[in-house]
Amino acid sequence: MKRFEDYSLHLPVKTIAGEGCIKQLPELLASLGSTHPLFILSRKASGTGIVELLGTIQDPVILGAKEISLNTATKLVGIYSAGRHDAIVAVGGGSVMDIAKTAKLMLSDASRNPMKLEGLGGTTCTKQVPLIVIPTTLGSGSGGTKLAYVRNSVTGVPLRIDDTGLFADIALLDPKMSKSVSGTQTAYGVAAIVGRAIESMTSILSVPTTEAFAMQALKLVVANSFRVVHTPHDLEARMQIAIASQLAGIAISHTGGSIAHTLSIVLSQTTDISYGLGMRILLPHALRFNLAGAEPMLARLNSLMVFSNNLFADDPVELEEDALLFIHWVSEFFTGLTSSVSPAIPSRFYDILDQKGQERVLLPQQMEEIATIAYDSLDLLTSRQQPTIQDLIRVLEAAYWGYPLDHNDGQPSYTHDQKR
User: Fold this and answer.
1) Within 13 Å of residue 214, how many CA atoms lie on the same side as its CB?
2) Structural domain contains residue 195
3) Tens place of pLDDT per residue across the chain (420 aa)
């Protein structure tokens, strides 16, 4: 795998983790010079008693999942300015944190055109806008990233914004804030963490520091995920998973993701399939497609996570065998984690039905459109292999029907070193 001799990481987010750390919020706001923050809450979070727990909220903005768009970010900028607020506090899942981070970026640099936010690069902030994020779900890791995904209000497709101006000042990880999340939703969060960590480690931009973050995230997941899915009031286990989410988020923020991450983002913003469920279904197929060049890392993961004795193997045949064993372990891990969860969590897209249980949420004729949207995502630029639209369709088809993608026949039309 490619390695970089020189690299740098920028980690400005202050992470405070622990049961009851939410009580530090007034003190933390004061340390940032804030007396009149704007609170942005997810609709689900607002109905769980969190408002009463925080105690300092004045006229919060409450957003539903379908409202996470650039239009909403623009409205938040207006509300912030009109209300003469001096900080932002985002309480909710990854979508709410992303929209708050986008509003912060727009407020920090008034020259930013909302329709041209997508892209790579730093920012030259002209105004300091303090931001505190408080996750109420597990899995997104958005509190530690310089990434935000919001829907383009005109086209409806997800925009990927990558900018150091998106970093929060403080992330508060309090296990009590997510204890009302169901076992099913928690399992989706675990899948998101596992997918982000592994695709970070197989990214072409993976470096020793991000590998350490991702590896620790995987270890915490393996040690605590069964407890947190099946005994949701186990705050110790929930705290460890929250930390794993933050670590995986930091890792993928710097390395970028790959096919499973990209397709899951598109599915979550264009269908009713959540990001975590998309990751649970897509990850084994995406890893098989990306096998070439990723064998050493996947074989190493197999040695560390499955406890084989081939940690220092360098024979190509052994490396491929161990890599495939690890991919199989990923599938079995998800299956074992959710085997007793009710209702059963689908292992293929074909089995996902709407809330009435009558219609399939994803149809085969939608795959080309989803693949086309994903193909234009900057997330794919850090993939081990560079897929074509047809390659992405093949991955989606394998995940839809539940058959294993043939890693020999499923190689991409372009390698990363060829012009896309």
Assistant:
1) 28
2) yes
3) 445 556 777 789 999 999 999 889 999 999 999 999 999 999 888 766 666 666 667 788 999 877 888 899 999 999 999 999 999 999 999 999 999 999 999 998 766 666 666 664 555 566 789 999 999 998 889 999 999 998 887 777 888 888 888 999 999 999 988 888 888 999 999 999 999 999 999 999 999 999 999 999 999 999 999 999 988 789 999 999 999 999 999 999 999 989 999 999 999 988 999 999 999 999 999 999 999 989 999 998 988 877 555 555 567 788 898 899 999 999 999 999 988 888 889 999 999 998 888 899 999 999 999 999 999 998 999 999 999 999 999 999 999 999 988 766 545 444 444 433
Judge if 174 and 190 occupy the same domain.
no
Q: Do 195 and 324 lie in a common domain?
A: yes
* Burial class (CB within 10 angstroms; exposed 0-12, middle 13-18, buried 19+) of 2: exposed
- CA Rg, the chain, in Å? 21
**CATH number of 51's domain:** 3.40.50.1970
Q: Are 65 and 95 in contact (CB under 8 A)?
A: yes
Alpha-carbon distance of 104 to 399, in angstroms, equals: 37
> 145 with 250, same domain?
no
The domain tally of the chain equals 2
- Per DSSP, the residues of 27-89 read HHHHHTT-SSPEEEEEHHHHTTTHHHHH----S-EEE-GGG-BHHHHHHHHHHHHHTT---EE
List the domain range (segments joined by +) for residue 21. 14-178
Same domain, 137 and 272: no
Same domain flag for 171 and 195: no
Dihedral in degrees, nearest 10, Cα atoms 288, 292, 294, 298:
50
Q: Provide the whole-model pTM.
A: 0.90
